[in-house]
Design brief:
By secondary structure, the chain is an all-beta fold. Helix content is 2%, strand content 47%. The protein has a 22-stranded mixed sheet that branches. An 8-stranded parallel sheet has the order 4-9-12-17-20-23-26-29, with no helix packed on it.
Length: 343
């Protein structure tokens, strides 16, 4: 059913287009003038099925009506009333180009693709952000049910989002499998990252500098639990002029690394990271009991020794609450890994 468009001009986006339940969302968005920033306002209590990738251009927004959160301190678990479901043929449900914003929607889907029997990088995600700007943002978005990453090539700021049940295809593990994967600095805050088969949050391949992110790969005030690999991973960063930095602080990190030896937080072949004031070990939060991280390892700072990757260097691990867990890497010289005030 094709509905009637209600168009309102706004101070943020250039205009608003209301997309009623039952209207073809991908056809509506993709037919819009890419030179006009449009807020596509979706209706609550609706599921929008898309069989063509939705393309958001500069200034575009997709939003459901404001709904509620479940507080899982320090995170906020969003409960959107709008769901966008991609068909089995889409390697991405949504692709972002330029500065975009998504809020109050749940996105499901993103099957991985293969070439010559090998998984194809960048496929199998709900949201592809390789062409998005570092000033893009997500707020109160829930992403789930992908073959690889929930968000690929992430750019921007991610606040009060939920990422779970990503990497349903194990062939993407160690490749792109994660709730969110970035190769440039992003910020993730107050978010609920849980039960992903791969890493929860992952910045890789130099995690390149972003002028919009002065704290680097800034992961703070999140609940990161029950992920199959590292809860938070900072990997292969350093040795080039635009290599990024990491600040990982004030997170609750529990029950991670169930499927691989990674620890709650993993710093691997990486440089210039500060990990501080995070809480590890078994803990109950909002009535849910979370186990310790695998092998009671809170943080792993490791170096593969490979000549084609950066050497581990300038890692500071400070003031974390371990609750009986350990840190791997503190035995190295302080110029490589410096540990203090952890308890």
């Amino acid at each position: 059913m094709i509905g009637v468009l209600a168009v309102v001009f706004l101070m943020g986006a250039d205009r608003e287009v209301v997309v009623p339940c039952g209207q073809d969302l991908d056809a509506t968005v993709n037919a819009d003038d890419p030179m006009i920033g449009t807020r596509f306002q979706l209706e609550g209590g609706c599921t929008y099925s898309v069989d063509t990738m939705v393309v958001l251009n500069e200034g575009d927004e997709i939003a459901g009506p404001q709904a509620t959160f479940i507080e899982r301190a320090p995170a906020f678990d969003p409960q959107p009333t709008v769901t966008i479901v991609g068909s089995e043929g889409l390697s991405h449900v949504i692709r972002a180009q330029g500065t975009v914003r998504l809020e109050w929607v749940k996105i499901i889907g993103g099957p991985g693709q293969y070439l010559g029997g090998s998984p194809v990088a960048g496929t199998g995600s709900a949201l592809a952000m390789g062409m998005a700007s570092n000033t893009s943002s997500l707020y109160a978005v829930h992403i789930t049910g992908t073959d690889a990453a929930g968000i690929t090539n992430a750019h921007g700021t991610f606040e009060r989002i939920e990422l779970d049940d990503t990497t349903q295809d194990p062939n993407f593990l160690g490749f792109t499998g994660s709730g969110l994967k970035a190769i440039n600095e992003v910020e993730v805050r107050n978010s609920y990252i849980h039960d992903n088969q791969g890493n929860g949050l992952w910045c890789d391949v130099f995690c390149q500098d972003s002028e919009s992110h002065l704290n680097g790969f800034w992961v703070h005030e999140n609940l990161v639990v029950n992920n199959g690999r590292a809860g938070i991973r900072f990997e292969q960063v350093g040795d080039v002029a635009d290599a990024g930095e990491a600040l990982i602080e004030n997170n609750e990190v529990h029950g991670n690394s169930t499927g691989a030896v990674r620890g709650g937080v993993s710093l691997h072949d990486a440089q210039n990271a500060l990990v501080r004031n995070n809480v590890f070990g078994a803990k109950s939060i909002a009535g849910v009991a979370y186990p310790r991280n695998r092998d009671r390892v809170a943080i792993r700072a490791t170096d593969s020794g490979r000549s084609d990757r950066p050497n581990l260097f300038n890692i500071d691990i400070v003031g974390n609450v371990l609750n009986g867990e350990v840190i791997k890497g503190c035995e190295k010289p302080d110029t490589i890994v410096a540990c203090s005030g952890n308890r």
